[in-house]
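Order emerges. One example.
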Amino acid sequence: MLDKLAKFYGITIDQIVHMGSEVPTEITLEDKTANKQVRLIAELDENDKSIIFGMIETMFTKKKFKDFFQKNVAVL
């Protein structure tokens, strides 16, 4: 179990057992600048980055279609 946690967080088992004051804290993106948010996403592994950017692209596409249809339905 500890070896999986160590691998997941990119630290050693010794660091888990003897963390001291270096306990990781939860990261909340909402309170970060856009620049910091992108840097944090860039730290993820390639698969996770791909998932995040895929979700963002899907949301932008949905918004564009929604805006397009609202604009064009209003013209009718």
About this structure: DSSP finds four helices and no strands in the chain. The CA atoms of residues 5 and 67 lie 44 Å apart.
